[in-house]
Amino acid sequence: ADGSRVLLIGAGDLAASVAPYLRHVELAAWNRRPIAAGRRAGFTTVDRWFEPGEADVAGGWAEVAIITSPADAD
Hints:
Blueprint: E1 5-9, H1 13-18, E2 26-30, H2 37-41, E3 48-50, H3 55-61, E4 64-67
């Protein structure tokens, strides 16, 4: 819904392709590894970036989470 807090988990190509469609929400992103400023700049609709150590904070902030990261091999 408009204004919802949506968290993208991951910052790869899938996340980059989904993010432009989420203009009507408060959009944040979290990734398990640091994301370079240049890569972040490509996510023009992301309002907030959570750092790798902030997984719990990001999860608590979000009303909806969209997983765009592949599963770990383990």
